[in-house]
Amino acid sequence: MANFGVIVFPGSNCDHDAYHALKHVMNADVKFLWHKDTDLSDIDFLIVPGGFSYGDYLRSGAIARFSPIMQEVVKFAEKGGPVMGICNGFQILLEAGLIPGAMMHNNKLRFVCKSVNIRVENTESMFTSHLKKGQVLNIPVSHGEGNYFIDDDGLKALNDNNQVLFRYTDAEGNLTDEANFNGSRDSIAGITNVGGNVLGMMPHPERAMEKILGSEDGKPIFDSILNSLSIA
Amino acid sequence: MATSHAQEPEVTLELALEHGLNEEEYGWIVDKLGRTPTFTELGVYSVMWSEHCSYKNSIVELKKLPRDGEHLLVGAGEENAGLVDIGDGLGCAFKIESHNHPSAVEPYQGAATGVGGIHRDIFTMGARPIASLNSLRFGDMKNPRVRYLLDGVVRGIGDYGNSFGVPVIAGEVYFDESYEGNPLVNAMSIGIVKAGETASAIAEGIGNPVIIVGASTGRDGIHGATFASEEISEESEKKRPSVQVGDPFTEKLLLEASLEALKTGAVVGMQDMGAAGIACSSSEMTAKGQQGMRVDLDKVPAREDGMTAYELLLSESQERMLVVAHKGREQEIIDVYEKWDLHAVVVGEVVDGDKVTYWKEGEVKAEIPADHLVLGGGAPQYIRETKKPAYLEETQNFDIEGLDHPADHIDTIKKLLNSPNIASKRWVHEQYDTTVRTNTVTAPGASDSGVIRIKDTKKGLVAKTDCNGRYVYLNPRKGGQIAVVESARNVVCSGGKPMAITNCLNFGNPYKPEVYWTFKEALGGMGDACRALNTPVTGGNVSFYNENPEGAIFPSPIIGMLGVIEDVEKHTTTPEFKAEGEIIVYLGADRKGLGGTEYLKVIHNLTQGDAPELNIDFEVKLQESLLEAIKAGFITAAHDIADGGLAITLAEMAIFSKLGATVDLAKLTGSAHEVLFSEAQSGVVVTIREADLSTVKAHFENFGVPAIEIGSVNGSDKLEIKGIGSLDLKEISETYESVIPNAMNT
């Protein structure tokens, strides 16, 4: 069975949530990786979890990208290894240059924590194969800097290469200004790199894994991942 | 005894008075020390004997509260927080604390460090914080300063708690002119610890090393505790440097490192540093261990050069703890903190005797018997003069029925929904992370109280902060009772059994006899209710001197109620209507009396009358019968009647569910405006399946609790109240959701 690794930076606070989701909901093999670790040889899939790595004092993810493990994560990803960055993890992957674009403060300049709807834009990815195109998922967000930005050329490339996996929409799957609560370019909630092996997303699928917590819509994303790893 | 440093001011009675001590207290110090204290000693006595640290004007009354119960693992005041046995081999540590004065002058940092401080109280006991709550009070939202304070406080709570990674699960926000200039910012933390793995705030074992861990010590927050122990005035702005600056990132590291350090078994005792910093933590731990402690202040990691002993001892720099290790095992502890990139430096040791001795540059700067400094030891205890406030005569005899009550009740309901006290607080709680740690079953706003599941068990924890200061102002004793029973009722409405409370007692200047009378009465009321509900007081915090130039705030004893849900999947109950065709039932006492209501305030701009009706014995029956009905699976929704009365309870159930309903309130006795807007206690609205109606009625009849069928849920887009009129759900939802965002212009 595939081995998942969840990176723990000083200040990570969704590390245990990702661990719980994989270990206890998905029954997967998972272990924590300390930010000073550099050996990823027994890892099949990396999670860069949410939180406030190094306090995010300079700019979200700006310090974490320099930590020892991130040098190895870049090598892992460049060799095609699958990596998923959630929230702060997405910000770190952007800072590390593994995914194009940048994150700005939410356009209303306030932290936002709520349940939002995201529409599945592409099901040919290893992260979304168990979903239907156009399907709307109800998943929590919780961030202050989730206003995704990319320039016109970059955006065109993302669209041309089918790199956009999720967009913020209303419950019916319509793109609206209100649904795009943080002002992200083109309502982007989650994208992959060109190779399709690195995903960054602001919403927290690991918080939507159990009925008692209000939504299980995060599960098909992990089902997709586990399925692709078992085939690979 | 070494001579004091040349630069230090000479210690005189005058200097002692400037430090906030009185003549009698200064005399006691000179007498017991047998000499004039050094400047450093004076500083230490003054903070340790400040109201904030010593509870000198409240402890006699606090001891009258019920503080025993079969589930309590630690008694009130014994450790940093109360500890309740919740079964499954788990203990729950919880506590609420104020940060009012810092927040009044520096709302962002004031609120942020309030959150940091209360979480440290929890993890210093070895418990991992898993949820937080808060209780906020501000002046009138029309005042731009109030909006500035609200914005800063919410950002402060959010930025600190979000980064620290603990969800906010419930809270309350009230606005009233009485809190103008002196907002209340009370923060509560709840943590979980395995039984037998708790840590104690004790220093014992001669020769055991004392280690300071966490952040370095700077000049911030010196005399913060003293600042908290005086009234807010125009001078207060100058006290801005007394407000500490928070660093949630360091706190997060401190949490992880401290829990890891405890696992080594090398820790004897651990105490967080809050008010009065090193002075307080070292003397409290020493007094508890009944031995002495020597601290070498030169070894304390400092943020700046040239800090004096006085400054090092009194600094309230955040995110620090004092740890006593087993001799020879200190390196194990240091290694853990260094792994987390934190300071861990041995600064002293436990010694023979009973004194705390602070050294700097080869000199003894202070040497004080630890017992002199702490509560229950030498710290003064006072019984203050009391006098019933004169205004009560007027307010309690006010002729409410003689007012001109508007006939258009629908219009009144809309006006109430437009009150920021009733309107949705979504603007506030969406700035808090409410779902991190993946335990949140009901988040703020969606329920009468916050519910979290406890992983690896079937259980849930349910918690609520509550107090209506208007009621306490109008009738301190009954207001104190209501604060407790209402928070318990909220817990029951969510499916939990109330277990114990923590409290944050926010009052005015205790030297004013009227304030003290109110304080004493309110505590008496809380005690009555806690005894009846069997929910002992596990501790908390007293905040006096909450005044502005206009006078004292509404007396506000905020209750933090903790309950346990036996089966969190089955018993958790929420207020929104669930399905068309379900029957709406009113449970409880007659809806009568309009004293102290939001209706009186909003429609007549009055705070008058007596506090709402309450019969504690009946309230207990209501809560017991409701909890049984919930556990038996009969109740599909439950919502307490509180601010705004029955009309608002029904409107909220409809708004939350987007389902309409038709109700007929003719079966309830009383005039229409009383039935709709009375805040009489012991009232709950529930829904049940039609098939269960006779069984449910019989169940409540057995308890002597009236259960009156008042209507049913339907698929319409209206809440229709027969004989009164109808409310368009879309319209009232928009009102309810837009009040605070509009006021805050976002």
Structural class of chain A: alpha/beta
For the residues shown, what is the average pLDDT of chain B? 94
If you compute it from the alpha carbons, what radius of gyration of chain A comes out, rounded to the nearest whole angstrom? 16 Å
* Principal-axes shape call of chain B: globular
Helix count, DSSP H or I runs of 4 or more residues of chain B: 27
Averaged pLDDT of chain A, please?
Answer: 97
Task: Summarize the topology.
The complex is a heterodimer of chains A (232) and B (746).
Chain A: E1 3-8, H1 15-25, E2 29-34, E3 45-48, H2 68-78, E4 83-86, H3 88-95, E5 102-104, E6 112-120, E7 136-143, E8 147-149, H4 152-160, E9 164-169, E10 188-192, E11 198-201, H5 219-231
Parallel strand pairs in A: 1-2, 1-3, 3-4, 4-11
Antiparallel strand pairs in A: 5-8, 6-7, 6-9, 9-10, 10-11
Chain B: H1 13-18, H2 23-33, H3 39-48, H4 51-54, H5 59-62, E1 72-74, E2 82-87, E3 90-98, H6 100-105, H7 107-123, E4 128-138, H8 144-164, E5 168-175, E6 184-194, E7 209-214, H9 224-227, H10 248-263, E8 267-272, H11 277-289, E9 292-296, H12 309-314, E10 320-325, H13 330-339, E11 343-351, E12 355-360, E13 363-369, H14 370-373, H15 391-396, H16 409-417, H17 426-429, E14 440-442, E15 450-453, E16 460-466, H18 469-474, H19 476-493, E17 497-506, H20 513-533, E18 537-543, E19 547-548, E20 551-552, E21 556-565, H21 568-571, E22 583-588, H22 598-604, H23 616-631, E23 637-640, H24 645-657, E24 660-663, H25 672-677, E25 683-688, H26 693-703, E26 707-714, E27 718-721, E28 725-728, H27 729-744
Parallel strand pairs in B: 4-5, 9-12, 17-18, 24-27
Antiparallel strand pairs in B: 1-2, 2-3, 3-6, 4-6, 7-10, 7-11, 8-10, 9-11, 12-13, 14-15, 15-16, 16-21, 17-21, 19-20, 22-25, 22-26, 23-25, 24-26, 27-28
